[in-house]
Amino acid sequence: MRKFIISALIFVLVFSIAAPGFTAAAEDDFDAKTPVTIDGVKYENVALEKSYERTGDVYDGKWTDTGTDGKPLGKMTDGVVAANGNDEAIGCYKGGETSVTIDLGQAYAIKQVTTDLYGFAEWGIPDPSVAEVTVSVSSDGKSFAKIGDAEKSDEIPKEGWKLRLFTLTLDQTVAARYVRVTYKIQGTFCWTSEVAVFGSEDLSGSSQPPETSSESSQPAESSAAGSQPAAQSKASTSSTASAKESSAPADSEEQAEESLTWLYILIGVVVVVVAVGIAVVVANKKKKE
Description:
- This protein is α+β, with helices and mostly antiparallel strands.
- It folds into two domains: 83 residues, no CATH class; 205 residues, Jelly Rolls.
- It is 25% helix and 30% strand.
- Strands 1, 2, 3, 6, 7, 8, 9, 10, 11 and 13 form a ten-stranded antiparallel sheet that branches. Strands 4-5-12 form a three-stranded antiparallel sheet, with no helix packed on it.
- A hairpin with a 2-residue loop joins strand 10 and strand 11.
- The chain is extended.
- The chain starts with a helix and ends with a helix.
- About 22% of the residues have low confidence.
C-alpha cells in the first residue's frame, strides 16, 4: 500500500512538470533562440544570424571572434550561448572597452537586450562583477544614442568560471535598426559569447531614438549622456492604445495555456485520489476476508 501511494505521488509530480506551461529550465539560463514574453507580448531575438561590427583588439586561439580576413566570425549572433568560459562559443576581444554594433536589417521595436560575461582570475579575465554594459541604438548606423545601462545578474558559478548576465529591459519599446552593446571591463579580455536583442516588427507604440550629433561609427555615449533612456519618453494616447490592443491575443493565448495546465493537474490529482481510494477499499475488504 505504501509503495502504491509513493508511486502515485511520483506520478503527480512528473505529470505536473510535463504539463504545458511548466519548464525545467533555471531562471538564470540564457537562451538566445527562445522568444521572451514580457507583459503578455512575445518578442523574438531579432539579432539572430545578423551581421555586426566590433571594436577592440583581435584575440587569437579557439575563443577568438575574428577570422583570417579580420572580420567577425559571427559568434555574437549565432544563437549559441557558451556552457562555460572554456567553450568555443566564446568570442573574445582584447582591451578595456569593446563594442558590438549589430545591423538588424530593418527597424524593430526593441524591448530587451541580453548578453553574458565570464571571468576567470587564473587566466587574467576580469570578474564581470566590476564590468559595465551599456546599450545604444541608431536608425542610420551613424548617430547613436544611449538608451540605458544593463543590469547585471547575481553571480552564476560555471565550473570554476564566474558568469553574469547583463540585461536591459525597456519600459517602452524603442524603434531602431542598429543596436550597439558596449562592454567596459576592468581588465584586458572581454570574454562573452552572445548578444540577444528581443523585439518585434510591430512598431506601434515605440518611441524613436533620441537625436544625437555623432556621425561616427564608434561609440557615441558622450553625446547621449545627458539624455533620458528612450524607453522613458512619453508616447501618444493612441499609440499606447494600439500597443495594448496588439498584446491582447498574446494575453488570451497565455491565459488559455495556463487554464489548460491547471486542468491537466486537476485531472491528474483526481485520478490519483480515485486510485488511492480504490486501493484502500480493496485492502480493507481483504482484511475482513
